[in-house]
Amino acid sequence: TAWWRRAPWPEGAVILLALGVAALAARLPLAHGDAQVWHFAVGEEVLRRGRWTLNVWNNAWHYPLATEMLFLPGYAFGGLEGAKAVNLFLFSAVLAAGGALAGAVRPGAGWPAAALLAGCGAAADVSTLGKHDLGAALGVAGAAWCLARGRAPVAVALCAGLAVEAKYTAAVPALVLLAAMVRMAKPGRRGMAVLAAAAAALPLVPWWTQNALWLGNPVHPYASRWLGGLHWNAELERGIWRVEEALVGAQQWSARALFRNVLAFADPFFGSVLLGALLPRALAARSAGPAARAVLAVFLVSFAVFATVVPRRRYLLPLLPL
Fold first, then answer.
1. Gap between the Cα atoms of 242 and 87, Å rounded
2. Residues near 253 by Cβ (< 8 Å), separated by ≥ 6?
3. pLDDT per residue over 121-148, tens digit each?
4. How far apart are CA 26 and CA 13, in angstroms?
5. Residues 305, 308, 314, CA angle at the centre, nearest 5°?
6. Is 70 exceeded by the pLDDT of residue 274?
């Protein structure tokens, strides 16, 4: 926490500005469709009914919803505004985790890294909508921090599992982190590291069990071709992918799209200006050796998968702390 207490003014100002803008945006009326029927709606429905319920007409209710469950205390004490406040706190936690990770692998890079995270317009935008990309980013940052600091393999695995519990797309960096954990283990302890990696599935077991009992498919709405599902089939599942392809649209692979979606994150002010101003400071920090190389390898492999398969800027958010 030492890097957080000694905040240099440029980076500290950027973080405060980003949090302030996100707080103001959170006060606006909720108009986003996903937030209305899914992200912020889950907590309200659970509290109203007093239990979790089957909803076969909304597939989103049967994903693992770790991030949405974090909003429950906010809803209980402050309604929708309370849930938004918890979401804003989650944004702050991602900034702190990203800074802590950077400080662990490159001493002195914590504040520039946190400021770069804060300056990503996509991250600030998601912080007002309840989307679970921030929860996935927090889990990935936690797993990478445990890996960089040499913590117990089970800690790396649990954080990786929590990232996937927040959003399935985090499975890409989570699997790469687990592979790096096994690779970095001492030769005589790699068997134990492999066993510890299995702990990544623990946070997902309750969701998979519920789906198996209610819908006949633990990973509903996916893999329906082999596992089937209640009121669901492979043709309906293909509709999900067709919508995904339509949303990707012009974001397909190109040098221009690469810069826009990854470096500028479709935000020409915060993305490009802050990158130019702060990245040299982060790169100038002294490397901490193997930990930095491991985290960089996790990022590069995960990014290669995302950029070539689903180059949507929001899906890259779990990689931002790396």
1. 30
2. 307, 308, 311
3. 666 667 777 888 889 999 999 999 999 8
4. 20
5. 75
6. no
Q: How many residues does the chain have?
A: 322
Q: Nearest 10 degrees: CA dihedral of 99, 101, 105, 108?
A: 20
Q: Could you tell me how far CA 91 lies from the centroid of its own chain?
A: 11
Task: Give the pLDDT confidence of 23-75 residue by residue, as tens digits.
Answer: 887 777 776 767 777 788 787 778 887 777 777 667 777 888 888 888 888 88
Query: How far, in Å, CA of 203 to CA of 188, rounded?
Result: 28
Beta-carbon contacts of 29 under 8 Å, excluding residues fewer than 6 positions away, are none
Q: What would the mean pLDDT of 165-173 be, rounded to a whole number?
A: 89
Backbone angles phi, psi at 42, to 5 degrees: -60, -50
Radius of gyration of the CA atoms of the chain, in A: 20
SS3 191: helix
Q: Which residue has the tokens 């293909």?
A: 238
C-alpha to C-alpha distances, 218 to 29, 79, 159, 221, 236, nearest whole angstrom: 35, 31, 21, 9, 17
Residue spans of alpha helices (H) in the chain: 2-5, 9-26, 33-34, 41-49, 66-105, 110-118, 121-126, 133-148, 153-166, 171-184, 190-197, 205-215, 224-227, 234-248, 255-258, 274-284, 290-309
